[in-house]
Write a structure and sequence with these properties.
This protein is of the alpha/beta class. Helices cover 26% and strands 34% of the residues. The chain has a domain of 153 residues: 3-Layer(aba) Sandwich (Rossmann fold), CATH 3.40.50. The strands form two sheets. Strands 4-1-5-6-7-8 form a six-stranded mixed β-sheet. Strands 2-3 form a two-stranded antiparallel sheet.
Length: 277
């Protein structure tokens, strides 16, 4: 209690100071965080290797809306659980291949407004002759269709005389369905349906001790989760890789092959010892 007057006096003295008294005239040095990096996934290298293939008359792709149709809402933050920028992720993934020409069809508000301003002579045309708008060969559309929480969660915890620890893991998954539509015939020429499981774990340690009449508690732990939106970007990039290799015929590499688990097929197998009748 005898320290309280000193604390109050120090607080009042600090409150009486102005910014010029507390800080340098040059201002304060802001905290510098981690550097900006490329936003890559493990599958980005699969896309960039496609650029090594020679290409002539590259196909023209337009990216339509890749919507979030999972219907999942984060009530605590009053927002969607999954990113609403999957269309932009798809555009970035195609651009990484350097083997398609991209034309804008997703948001034409500014280009159309610009063309209208030129027609109304509100904007000056460039000196070069205006080129016609290029038609697309293919349109890519689709949706995020799955977000399954808690596919598996497991863990254990033990405590002995106030000292304990534990850990747990959790796995969820996201699913994506996209299709390639021929711009001239409107035929659906290719469909890709992918999912990715996302892993997270938590480790904790606790110490509880009584010192006299006081309980002292110490907690330590670590939580590390694969970013959910990184999982979304991963399935998007794998879908683009499939379109470029399976559909357009560019050579694929063994390290970028699509894993095909047999869980679903095994579920239909007749258990051993059971008749087929």
């Amino acid at each position: 209690m005898r320290h309280i007057p000193y604390i109050v006096a120090a607080t009042l003295a600090l409150g009486a100071c102005t910014g010029q008294d507390l800080y340098s005239p040059m201002g304060v040095r802001p905290t510098m965080g981690l550097p900006v990096t490329a936003n890559d996934t493990p599958y980005s290298q699969c896309l960039t290797t496609l650029a090594k293939n020679s290409a002539k008359n590259m196909p023209v792709f337009a990216i339509g809306e890749i919507a979030d149709k999972t219907g999942q809402i984060d009530r605590s933050n009053n927002g969607a659980v999954l990113t609403q920028g999957v269309t932009e992720m798809m555009m970035s993934a195609f651009y990484k291949t350097r083997r398609v020409a991209l034309v804008e069809r997703f948001d034409l508000r500014i280009p159309l407004a610009e063309a209208k301003m030129v027609q109304q002579k509100l904007a000056v045309k460039p000196s070069q002759t205006a080129r016609p708008v290029r038609a697309s060969n293919f349109v890519v559309m689709g949706a995020l269709t799955e977000l399954n929480f808690n596919i598996v969660s497991e863990g254990a915890r033990v405590s002995v005389t106030g000292i304990g620890g534990g850990g747990r893991t959790v796995i969820i998954n996201v699913g994506l369905d996209v299709r390639v539509v021929n711009s001239q015939s409107f035929d659906v020429n290719y469909v890709s349906s992918l999912q990715k499981q996302i892993f997270g774990y938590e480790v904790e340690a606790n110490v509880f001790r009584f010192f006299g009449s006081r309980l002292v508690e110490f907690d330590a732990g670590r939580i590390q989760n694969e970013p959910l939106q990184l999982g979304v970007r991963s399935v998007v990039e794998m879908a683009v890789y499939q379109i470029m290799t399976d559909y357009l015929g560019l050579p694929s590499s063994a390290q970028c092959k699509l894993e095909r688990p047999t869980f679903a097929a095994e579920a239909l197998l007749t258990p051993k010892g059971e008749d087929n009748d």
